[in-house]
Specification:
single chain, 681 residues, alpha/beta, Rossmann fold, Nucleotidyltransferase, domain 5, five-stranded mixed beta sheet, 41% helix, 16% strand, flat
Length: 681
C-alpha cells in the first residue's frame, strides 16, 4: 500500500505494479507528532499529511505547494519511509509540461519497479485507467462540495446534513481520466507514459494550475441545488476562487473552512442545517429530532414553546395562539444540554401552573437542540433568530448575535427570510466566554464590567483577540497600573472591531439588531455602534430572540387549506398572491388544495409549485377528502419525503377517498396509495 495526497498522483501506474494507492486525507486529533519534526506555522493540511505519513511505509507526493515540498524534506530527513518519491508537477498541460511529466512518470516507474521487484503490467494499468474514468456529477439535484480538498470526516458530516446526493468536486475528490485508446495496446512504454501524462494534466484543473477556465463547468451544472465551498485555512489558491464564485455564480453558496483537526461539530452542523433550511430541503431520514407537524399533538392546545439550548444559557419562550408571550426562562445550560433544557421547561411550567404535556409543540434550536428529548422538532439558530428578529422588528435587515461561544451576522430580506449569514469558526474570541474570562481576570462580575466600560480616560489597544493571549495582555496592563475602566474599554473596542469587520464581510446593512447575552453589555454595544456608525436595535430580552423564533415555528408549522379558504383568509382574489401573503404572515409552508387539479405549494424558502392531482374514475363522496389530504401530507413528511412528494402522497390518498363512499378507506386502498410514496428529493 502506497499513500498519496494529490489527484495528479500516478495511481494507475502504482496499480500496474500490483499495489494499491491510499489517499491520505484524514483529519487528526492534534499536530503534536508533526510539530516535533517541523515548524508549528506549517499549514494545517501539511501537518495532517505529515502525521499520517509517519505511519505510512510508502509515499508518493506532488510538489503542488511549498508546504508539501517541506513535508517531503522532513520525511527524507526523518528516514521513516521505505519508499518516498516526489513528483515535479507542471502548472499547465502544454507540450513542454507534458514532456516534463512524462519524464517524471518514467523516473517513478523505474524507481518503484526496482523497489517492488515487479514488472510493469500493461493490462493492470489499462484496467486501473478504466476504473477511474466514470466519475461524473449526477443527473439529479445534488449539493456540490467545491474548493480545496475535504477530509472523509468533513465530507461525511456534510452528507449527513442533506437529503439529496452530495458530490465531492474538490481537488482531491474529482479524479476523472480518459479511457485508453484502442491503439494504446501497441504503444511502447515511453509512448504510453506520454499518453498518460496528457490524461493526468487534462483533468479538471486544480487551482494551482495556470489555466482554470474549465473549472466553471463544476458550478454551472444545472442540477446543483447549492454549493458548500470548503477552504483549508491559509490556502490562498481556493480563497481566490471563492471570491470569484461568490461574485459570478447564481447558486446558493455556503463557505466553510477546515483546519484538519477533529473537533466538536456543533458550529458546522448549525451552518449546514441553516443552509439546508435556506434551500427548502427537509432533514434527511426524518430523524427523531426533526419530527414534522404530525408529531405535534393533533388536538391543539393554547401553549406553543421554543427552546434555545446554547453553550452558556438555555432560553425558553411560551406563546399563546395569538403570538403573545406568556412566559419565558433563562437558565444556565450547565454541563449537559438536556439538564438545562429540563430546568427551563420546569421554570415556564411553574410560571403558567401547567404540566409539560399542556404544551402543544416545542421547537428546539441552538447547539444542544438535538439532545432535548421533549422537543417535537428542531430548527437551526440561524433560522430561528431570523424569525424572532423579524417578529420583534420587521425593519431589521442585519442581526448581530454574540452568544456564549460564537458570533453570527445574519442578513434578512424584507420578508424576514435569511438571505445570507456568517459565523466565527472555532475560536471563542469576542464572545460571551471571552468576556467572562476577562471579567474573572479583573475580578469583576458581568454587570460591573458592563458599567465600568462606559467611563474611561485612556485609549488602550488589546492587540490579540485570542482569549489566552488577551488575558496575558490584560494582566500586563494591570501590572502597569492601568485602570479597570480603560482596560475594559480596550476589550470592548477589540470585540467591536472584530464584530464590525465580520458584519462588513457579510455585507450587513442597517437597520441592525443585536441579540445574545453580550447585547446586555452596554460598553460593547456603545463601541459597536461607533464602529458601525449606526444604532443597534436591542429588545428588552436580547437572549430570547432565538427561543422566540423557535416558538413561532411551533405555533405555525404549516398552513393547509383549500383555495377558497386561502383567498378568504388573505383577502386577495389571486391565489398565488394570497399564498404569498399568508406565507409572509406565518413564514411557514402554505398548501392550497385545488380539488382534482392537485395542490399549489409554497415552500418555506418561498418557492411556488403545482403538484398535479391524481386522476379518478368517479367521484362517490367528497366527505373527508381534505382531512385525508392533510393527514397523508403529515405522514409523508414523517417518512422523510420532501414537501412536494408529501403533497403528491396527499393527492393520491384524497383521490382514493373521493372514489369511496364515506370518509374512511379500506386497508387495501390505503396501502395501495401509501405504497407509491417516493423517497425525499
Amino acid at each position: 500500500m502506497i499513500g498519496y495526497s494529490c489527484k495528479y498522483a500516478p495511481v494507475e501506474l502504482v496499480a500496474a505494479y500490483g499495489e494499491e494507492a491510499l489517499l491520505l486525507d484524514a483529519e487528526t486529533s492534534d499536530f503534536s507528532r508533526a510539530e516535533t519534526l517541523t515548524h508549528a506555522n506549517v499549514c494545517c493540511h501539511a501537518k495532517a499529511l505529515l502525521t499520517q505519513a509517519l505511519d505510512t511505509d510508502e509515499l508518493v507526493l506532488t510538489d503542488c505547494c511549498d508546504a508539501t515540498r517541506r513535508i517531503c524534506d522532513v520525511l527524507q530527513d526523518a528516514g521513516r519511509q521505505r519508499f518516498l518519491f516526489q513528483f515535479d508537477l507542471p502548472h499547465d498541460d502544454a507540450a513542454c509540461a507534458r514532456a516534463r511529466l512524462t519524464r517524471e512518470l518514467i523516473r517513478f516507474a523505474d524507481a518503484y519497479g526496482a523497489y517492488t521487484g515487479r514488472a510493469f503490467s500493461k493490462e493492470a494499468f489499462f484496467a486501473a485507467c478504466r476504473n477511474h474514468s466514470s466519475a461524473h456529477p449526477p443527473r439529479e439535484p445534488f449539493i456540490a462540495v467545491l474548493g480545496a480538498r475535504v477530509s472523509p470526516q468533513l465530507l461525511g458530516q456534510i452528507r449527513c446534513a442533506f437529503p439529496i446526493p452530495v458530490e465531492n468536486l474538490t481537488c482531491s475528490g474529482l479524479r476523472t481520466l480518459e479511457d485508453p485508446p484502442e491503439e494504446a495496446a501497441g504503444f511502447s512504454f515511453e509512448a504510453l507514459m506520454d499518453w498518460y501524462a496528457g490524461v493526468l494534466l487534462r483533468q479538471t484543473p486544480c487551482m494551482r494550475m495556470t489555466d482554470i477556465a474549465s473549472r466553471r463547468a463544476l458550478y454551472e451544472n444545472e442540477n446543483i441545488r447549492g454549493i458548500v465551498y470548503n477552504t483549508v485555512k491559509f490556502c490562498d489558491y481556493y480563497g481566490f476562487e471563492y471570491a470569484d464564485l461568490k461574485a459570478k455564480s447564481a447558486a446558493a453558496l455556503l463557505k466553510i473552512e477546515s483546519d484538519y483537526t477533529l473537533t466538536a461539530p456543533g458550529q458546522l452542523s448549525t451552518r449546514l442545517e441553516a443552509f439546508r433550511e435556506r434551500l427548502g430541503l427537509t432533514a434527511p431520514d426524518g430523524g427523531a429530532g426533526n419530527q414534522p407537524p404530525a408529531a405535534e399533538k393533533a388536538a391543539r392546545k393554547k401553549y406553543f414553546a421554543g427552546i434555545d439550548s446554547g453553550s452558556t444559557t438555555t432560553n425558553m419562550v411560551v406563546l399563546d395562539e395569538n403570538e403573545a408571550m406568556l412566559a419565558f426562562a433563562i437558565v444556565r445550560t450547565g454541563p449537559r444540554a438536556h439538564v438545562g433544557a429540563q430546568a427551563a421547561l420546569e421554570t415556564v411550567c411553574r410560571t403558567l401552573h401547567i404540566e409539560p404535556d399542556a404544551l402543544s409543540a416545542i421547537v428546539a434550536t441552538g447547539y444542544g437542540r438535538n439532545n432535548i428529548p421533549f422537543a417535537t422538532r428542531t430548527k437551526t439558530e440561524i433560522t430561528c433568530h431570523a424569525r424572532g428578529a423579524h417578529a420583534l422588528n420587521p425593519a431589521v435587515r442585519t442581526i448581530i448575535d454574540i452568544g456564549g461561544q460564537d458570533s453570527k451576522v445574519i442578513n434578512l430580506d424584507e420578508t424576514g427570510h435569511v438571505s445570507g449569514f456568517m459565523m466565527n469558526d472555532k475560536c471563542a474570541a469576542g464572545t460571551g466566554r471571552f468576556l467572562e474570562m476577562m471579567a474573572r481576570t479583573l475580578e469583576l462580575d458581568m454587570e460591573e464590567m458592563s458599567r465600568r466600560g462606559l467611563t474611561w480616560e485612556k485609549e488602550l489597544t488589546i492587540s490579540s483577540m485570542c482569549t489566552v493571549f488577551a488575558e496575558s495582555e490584560v494582566i500586563s496592563l494591570i501590572a502597569d497600573n492601568h485602570t479597570d475602566s480603560d482596560i475594559i474599554h480596550g476589550l470592548n473596542q477589540s470585540i467591536a472591531g472584530k464584530t464590525a469587520a465580520m458584519a462588513a464581510r457579510a455585507k450587513g446593512q442597517p437597520p441592525y439588531m443585536m441579540t445574545g447575552g453580550v447585547a446586555r453589555n452596554r460598553g460593547v454595544v456603545q463601541a459597536l455602534e461607533e464602529k458601525l456608525d449606526a444604532k443597534l436595535f436591542i429588545s428588552e430580552n436580547p437572549d430570547l430572540c432565538g427561543a422566540l423564533g423557535a416558538a413561532l415555528f411551533a405555533l405555525h408549522p404549516m398552513l393547509h387549506l383549500n383555495a377558497s379558504e386561502a383567498r378568504a383568509l388573505s383577502g386577495l382574489s389571486d391565489l398565488d398572491e394570497a399564498m404569498h401573503a399568508l406565507h409572509q404572515k406565518t413564514q411557514a409552508p402554505v398548501i392550497a388544495t385545488l380539488g382534482r387539479h392537485g395542490a399549489r405549494v409554497l415552500a418555506e424558502d418561498g418557492a411556488l409549485l403545482t403538484v398535479p392531482g391524481q386522476p379518478v374514475e368517479r367521484v362517490a363522496d367528497t366527505i373527508g377528502a381534505g382531512d385525508a389530504h392533510a393527514g397523508a401530507v403529515l405522514l409523508g413528511l414523517s417518512r422523510g419525503l420532501s414537501l412536494a412528494n408529501a403533497v403528491a402522497l396527499g393527492n393520491r390518498v384524497s383521490a382514493q377517498v373521493v372514489q369511496t363512499a364515506g370518509a374512511t378507506l379500506s386497508d387495501e386502498a390505503l396501502s395501495r396509495a401509501l405504497s407509491r410514496a417516493k423517497p425525499a428529493v
